[in-house]
Amino acid sequence: MSMGMVSALQLPRLPPMRTRGKRWRRVAAAAVIAGASVPTVVRWLRRAGAARRAVDMRMTVVVQKPIHAGFEFCRDFEHFPQIVDVLLSVEDFQDGRSHWAVRSPTGQAIEWDATVTKYVPSSVIGWESVPGSIVQATGLMRFAQLSPTDTRVDVSLTYRPLRTGYADAFRALIGSSNTERLRAELSHASQELSSASEPLAAADNEESLGPAGR
Hints:
about 35% helix, disordered C terminus
């Protein structure tokens, strides 16, 4: 590739940012100078960006709340945006169906519907995106009582957008991965919920509620 072609390739102009962003720009520019074709570089950027957007994580948090209070908070998905910043909103229809919206790396809304797949009061909640969604997403939370005032929550989450454009891929590469952000936010959330002085939610009718009648 001639130097004229290299100078003609315009990488996105971004405001000054931390070293990580500069490093990815240098990597992309070096790939072009080394002789890689523009389509090859774009495919690489999309694959690498898509990988950083995807989530496949498992973690355990301990909340200093009774198990019924922790479960009651989590069974209403509309509470999730309070503890996970990337979530724009969740509308829980209380019948096993819900509508989710997240923020893409470029700030656009990505929306899909989900259904509850497992529901055992004070024990487990599971959900997944419906077929045909623009993302593949699943979640599973298992609750275990450690003491009358302490609850362990085992969390498993997967998230994979089915399409990643060039702009989203580039932004994903210069920021923290979704997995890193989720781990940090869930760890912080467990501390916030533990220190809350008021009960998370009333749980009087919990045992009679299920995925078709929540």
